[in-house]
Design goal:
The complex is a heterodimer of chains A (160) and B (597). By secondary structure, chain A is of the alpha+beta class. Helices cover 43% and strands 11% of the residues of chain A. Chain B has 597 residues and is α/β, with parallel strands linked by helices. Chain B has five domains: 104 residues, Glutaredoxin, CATH 3.40.30.10; 211 residues, NADH-ubiquinone oxidoreductase 51kDa subunit (Rossmann fold, 3-Layer(aba) Sandwich); 84 residues, Ubiquitin-like (UB roll) (Roll); 88 residues, de novo design (two linked rop proteins), CATH 1.20.1440.230; 57 residues, Alpha-Beta Plaits (2-Layer Sandwich). The chains are: A alpha+beta (160), B alpha/beta (597).
Amino acid sequence: MSSIKIELRQEDIEKIREICGSFGKDPQELINVLHKCQEHFGYLPAEVQEVVSNELDVPVAKIYGVVTFYSFFTMTPKGRHPISICMGTACYVRGAEKVLDEFKKELGLQVGQTSKDGKFSLSSLRCVGACGLAPVVLVGDKTYGRVAPDDVRNILKEYE
Amino acid sequence: MSQYRMQIMVCSGTGCSNLNSEAIFDNLQLEIEAFALENEIQVVRTGCFGLCGLGPVVRVMPGEVIYTRVTPDDAAEIVTEHVLKGRKVERLLHKDPVSRKILSTEPELSPFKKQLRIVLRNCGIIDPENIEEAIAANGYEALAKALTELTPDDAIKIIKDSGLRGRGGGGFPTGLKWEIARNNQAEEKYVVCNADEGDPGAFMDRSVLEGDPHAVLEAMAICGYCIGAGKGLIYIRAEYPLAVARLKTAISQAREYGLLGNNIMGTGFNFDIEIKYGAGAFVCGEETALIHSMEGLRGEPTVKPPFPAESGFRGKPTNVNNVETFACISPVILKGADWFRSIGTEKSKGTKVFALAGKINNVGLVEVPMGTTLREVIFEIGGGIRDGKKFKAAQTGGPSGGCLTEKHLDTPIDFDNLVAAGSMMGSGGLIVMDEDDCMVSVAKFFLEFTVEESCGKCSPCRIGNKRLHELLEHITKGKGTPADLDRLRNMSKVIKDTSLCGLGQSSPNPVLSTLDNFIEEYVSHVTVKKCPAGQCRDLMEYFIIEANCVGCTACARVCPVNAITGVRKEPHVINPEICIKCGACKEKCKFDAIIIH
């Protein structure tokens, strides 16, 4: 599974139990439980999945299957400033690929990777629905619209 | 409620919100308060106006004056000029990109011409977070009519007679779907709203949920009454936080007003709605996959039959419709089947919402009667192609659809005509491409999407699409052969014929449709190894026109691999062996001396 080994603190375990309890420990609520866990931890490491497995009485293999199936769930921690480039069709035809290439070059990261200092992570996503602003880049909660490859360096500068 | 003499509406759809329309709202509110006008002038947040390319947008009523590209700093001027002195703020009005004419009011703006708003009737007009505004705009009137004047069978008959077909892509008759769900006896039944809008480049459903959430809630309750269900579920993407928040507000307000919950309007009918979250999987738009996802499983589709109407969520009869379909229900119940039948073509009734995006002047949301031609949508409503370029193709149906070309421009758009043209309606994304777009790359782009989104359950889709993608990758790198084109066609056919669900059955469509319409582009890639659109990087060659080059050495200095040589003040040359085609030289050249072959 994940190459990163972490040790959950007692309070983390309590938090997961609390989340599972709030959904009545119903296995059918697994996806909602995972959403809440990811909101809390930022990602879903194997250790978190194990606790969920115990609480909901669902095999951990099944939970792993669900986590890896949906693109919204991730098993690697995101950077402090997660960068997402929209690769929806509208953004693509307006040059999103070139913008993504520029980010890769500037950061030395591939899609799905996080920088060593934990500052930036790079991902592509499918349509945020802001096609009027294409191409769109999200850094954390902030949206940048009509981004050109030349803007990339300035965007990154804001986070120095 | 007090009477206002003027209303200032601020679009708070996702597009405009991302451009800080919230701050515009706050500043307008502050300015109005500064002049103590809050009892006369109302500032309202509304859903999407459909003018996303011009956002953030502010509309002033009466007069229907539209201000575009507004910034928070403009709020003061709008209040002091327009509100106090009655003068329009000229610099914020939209100028037609072609005629340079100022278009100040909504009826003048071309995106609104030829439109007929049924689904989007309240979007951009009411405050989606205030149920009273929805009720004032006939909200929940159709539910009242159904509960008090119609039997479930009567209501289903109206929907059947109206000819309404599912707007999610398939086009299955909605009334018939409801009838099947009604006839399957069970103690528990479910109404599901599919709001998992997964098509990249489509944002119709999101805009409806953000702009008029009560339209969907009301229709789900009507559906519950018709099929005998007491519970509704909305399956929505977690990527749409604003829509989720508005839905939550709408549900709790509807409960408060007795329009959801037990004993609705005192009629003894019980119906409540819960939100279920998706987690980013395109295949979950397929109804069986969607149901599995709601049950906390991997969203893998299963064989139909049994259809969800027989055995769906938790094994109970379930009726699944998409957001846009639900948004059509109330007007049909209120105005009748004949009214709805009078709009559209013979087999496709009513209107369709399209999300116009890509290389088009007016990016945004439009709703037109079925049967409107592509030419009208792109050139009249959409304002034509950006930067005066030439129209090449319009992609409909997302990754499951195909391309429509010049020869399809005058075909009336409806479910059947699009299929005949080798594409499909899909959910309504319409991406416009111009002469600079390489159609082989477009097909590759969609296949890349399908490969990522295939659930992996059946091999034709899991392996076949991967092979298709590899072949396309080869071709765009200049390594393809003419035999590859036959391979593409054969494999596409096999994948279509042998895949289990709609995703696999339609995933080769972008390949087949581009092969049919743009075969010469494919041939050029595999024979002379040239990309006619000049988009495939590996097939490009940079070249210096001797006559234009003044020998300024700017290109040679910027070249990262020293591929450009030459003497100062004399024409330079690019060595194609060394050139990595980064394009830096072309950007630097002030004399248009560098061209791409």
